[in-house]
Write a structure and sequence with these properties.
Number of helices: 17
Radius of gyration: 42 Å
Distance between the termini: 87 Å
Shape: flat
Helix content: 25-40%
Oligomer: single chain
Number of strands: 31
Largest sheet: 9 strands, antiparallel
């Protein structure tokens, strides 16, 4: 039967026509779908919605999500980005939409990346969890390569002058020679002329010895030395030069000697051949030490380092093990093989290894041979199964099961170290004993995608690019009013987050100055600052959002503090900016920062404000200890420090701020210095604190360490009052011993 013939160009035209018709159908379907669902029906829920709710009520802890208009949110199981207010068909794949199900008790959730699965679902998904453990890592890194000459032990014998090869004492390659052994005899007219000059210079020196003129003797001596040096440069030894002078007769031949012992691996001349100056005659290689050049895969590079010991075998000697030391690693990767050259230095006293032999090498790593990222501290590193993380290239996501909540899985981004066999080393993000999903992670990730939660494939709003997040325009709503943050955050947390932003700005400065070490140090400090923030006051969605941002910023800090080069620092910093910009927008950090904007204050003035606070601190301590005498003395010291402030250093706007702050501080000091009563002194502390706080916030201060504003809510019959400290341990100056630890931190005024 003959095969049917097809018109290929016609088929192509039909294919494009079919694609065009399909695209048009999808477009019309989408338009019809959205048109039919925006007809003005504002009924909170339709009968289909109520049916869906009842059908999904038996899902236990999952119920359909209701949007702001009171409608059930419908999504596509294949395209979770589709979220519509009514049931129907997916505009992309035309599958039936299903209700978007979220946790009914979202307030009790531990993370935005949390999902709960029933026992049947876990069994169907074949979920397996494995504890994070500490263990010594050991890995066999296998490499192949070949034996090569040690280039530092290869020497060449060349003609030091032009001439004729009259005799070769070693006439074949492979000959074994010793250092200093005679190798060849060369007839050279240049040598004959140079020796004649030497004999004449020697005779002139003898004649000059009888002269009474010192100039003649010195000239003859210099001529003799020049003649000797010329012969030395032509290859004659000191003994040979002395022999010429002693014999008084020049020689027309010179003998070349071996500069080192070894094997003749190349002979470039034959007897009777004329050679020019610099022409090679022999090449000698010392085979007592050799190189072994190996090829290592990119993934194994973290485990290989200079100075490490590597064992290898040669096919010629099965069962015999050799050992070498890594002395060099190529700085670039071979783009064709994706490998890096690794050079070993090997002793070969018995000569069993021959250049060109193929070898197979194994480096046993672990302990002192482990990568630097593994050797931090004395403990073994944390490891997880290699099947646990979902790796996207930039991120590694694992799913953690709380020990007290089987079936609940929380997504977490972590920082991985190198792979060691069937495990990965964990650098940040997990603790020993936590349970990670080692099988079924992708199925859990798919469940999160369906419910539109952050996942490996859908990082979520926390990692969404934010452009110009710190500009005034980004803080405006469509109506022109300031945009409201997504979460209400306590001022004390806002103030601390503001200083996190300043640390990130410090990393900007370090990178602009190309100071890599300063940037790494700033990242290490950023990690400590993020981990030190107490966000226990947050609840609900704000708490979950903070945990997400804290996780991402901590990972950024780990990566930044360990970045090896300027390029990697820039890559990490781009992520850091994105993460903090999203945090700033949703928590209102940018808006808070704008409330602190004041004039640019000279450093000298900020130092003077620091001196005022240095006098203020003993005052609050004295009031907290119920010591009126010490309080009066401290108040006088504050007054003296204020008198030393030079207002002439400020510009017009700064002067206005200072005068307002100074008026309040003087009001408080007048009250405190004209009384012996502790209660009256405490009355004056509040305006003094208000004025000093205004100066610190608007004009700045130089202090070692942070500065906090604290509040006693019970002071002055429940009106409350503030004071300043450099730590967060409450020492209440308004009640003294009666309520010494009563109070709370309201905000941070200065960073570390």
């Amino acid at each position: 039967m003959s095969r049917p013939q097809f018109n290929i160009p016609l088929l192509i035209r039909y294919r494009w026509l079919a694609l065009g018709i399909g695209a048009l159908a999808i477009g019309l379907s989408v338009a019809f779908y959205f048109g039919s669902h925006t007809s003005g029906d504002d009924t909170p829920t339709t009968s289909a919605d109520r049916t869906a709710i009842s059908e999904h009520a038996d899902h236990g802890d999952l119920v359909p999500t209701i949007n702001a208009e009171g409608k059930v949110v419908w999504t596509c199981s294949m395209h979770p980005q589709i979220q519509l207010p009514e049931p129907g068909k997916c505009p992309i794949c035309f599958m039936d939409l299903i209700p978007l199900e979220l946790d009914a008790n979202r307030a009790a959730a531990e993370s935005l990346r949390q999902v709960t699965m029933s026992p049947d679902s876990r069994k169907l998904a074949e979920i397996v969890v494995t504890p994070v453990r500490r263990q010594s890592v050991a890995l066999d890194v296998r490499m192949v390569g070949k034996v090569a000459y040690d280039e530092t032990r290869v020497g060449s014998i060349t003609a030091w002058m032009g001439g004729r090869i009259d005799r070769l004492y070693v006439d074949s390659t492979g000959s074994v020679v010793q250092r200093g052994q005679a190798m060849a005899s060369i007839y050279s007219p240049d040598l004959l002329t140079a020796q004649a000059e030497l004999l004449q210079a020697a005779k002139a020196m003898r004649d000059a010895g009888q002269s009474s003129l010192d100039l003649v003797r010195r000239t003859a001596s210099r001529t003799l030395e020049a003649s000797r040096e010329k012969l030395r440069l032509l290859g004659l030894s000191k003994a040979q030069i002395d022999a010429v002078i002693t014999n008084g007769k020049p020689s027309d031949h010179i003998t070349l000697h071996a500069p080192q012992g070894g094997i003749v691996i190349k002979k470039d001349v034959v007897e009777g051949m004329y050679v020019q100056t610099g022409m090679p005659i022999y090449t000698i290689a010392d085979l007592s030490h050799l190189w072994v050049v190996l090829e290592a895969y990119e993934s194994d590079l973290p485990w290989i380092h200079e100075g490490g010991k590597v064992s290898f075998t040669a096919e010629a000697y099965p069962g015999r093990a050799y050992e070498g030391r890594i002395v060099y690693m190529d700085p670039v990767v071979n783009p064709r093989t994706r490998t890096v050259g690794v050079r070993l230095e090997v002793a070969n006293a018995d000569g069993s290894l021959k250049p060109g032999m193929f070898v197979q090498a194994v480096q046993r790593t672990g302990g002192n041979d482990a990568p630097a990222t593994v050797q931090k501290g004395q403990e073994d590193p944390l490891v997880i199964p290699a099947s646990a993380p979902l790796i996207t290239g930039k991120r590694a996501v694992v799913y953690v099961q709380p020990k007290d909540a089987p079936g609940t899985f929380i997504g977490r981004e972590i920082v991985l170290g190198p792979r060691a066999g069937d495990t990965y080393i964990v650098r940040s993000g997990l603790a020993e004993g936590e349970l990670v999903v080692s099988k079924g992670s992708f199925k859990i990730d798919s469940a999160l995608q369906i419910t539109a939660k952050p996942s490996m494939m859908n990082p979520g709003a926390s990692e969404a690019p934010v452009h110009a997040a710190d500009t005034p325009q980004s803080l405006q709503s469509a109506s022109g009013a300031p945009a409201k943050p997504a979460f209400d955050v306590p001022e004390v947390l806002l103030s601390k987050l503001h200083f996190i932003g300043q640390r990130i700005a410090g990393i900007d400065d370090a990178l602009r100055a190309s100071d890599e070490q300063a940037a790494r140090d700033q990242y290490a400090a950023l990690q400590q600052a993020v981990m030190a923030i107490d966000a226990s006051a947050l609840e609900g969605e704000a708490k979950l959002a903070w945990r997400e941002y804290a996780m991402l910023l901590t990972n950024d800090a780990v990566l930044g503090s360990e970045a090896r080069d300027y390029k990697r620092l820039h890559e990490v910093h781009a992520l850091t900016h994105t993460h903090f910009a999203n945090l700033s927008k949703n928590f209102g950090v940018s808006a808070y920062a704008r409330t602190l904007t004041g004039s640019t204050t000279p450093a000298a003035f900020r130092q003077q404000v620091g001196a005022v606070y240095a006098a203020y601190a003993p005052l609050t301590d004295a009031l907290g200890k119920d010591d009126p005498a010490a309080a009066r003395a401290a108040a006088a010291a504050v007054k003296k420090a204020l008198a030393g402030v030079d207002m002439a250093l400020l510009d017009a706007s700064g002067h206005t701020v200072w005068m307002q702050a100074l008026a309040e501080m003087q009001t408080g000091l007048d009250t405190m210095t004209n009384t012996d009563s502790l209660e009256t002194m405490r009355t004056g502390l509040e305006p003094l604190t208000v004025g000093l706080t205004k100066a610190v916030m608007r004009l700045g201060v130089f202090l070692d360490g942070p500065l906090y504003e604290l509040r006693c809510p019970m002071a002055f019959d429940g009106k409350g009052a503030h004071w300043l400290q450099q730590d967060e341990n409450v020492r209440n100056p308004y009640f003294g011993a009666a309520m010494y630890t009563c109070g709370e931190v309201t905000r941070q005024l200065k960073a570390e």
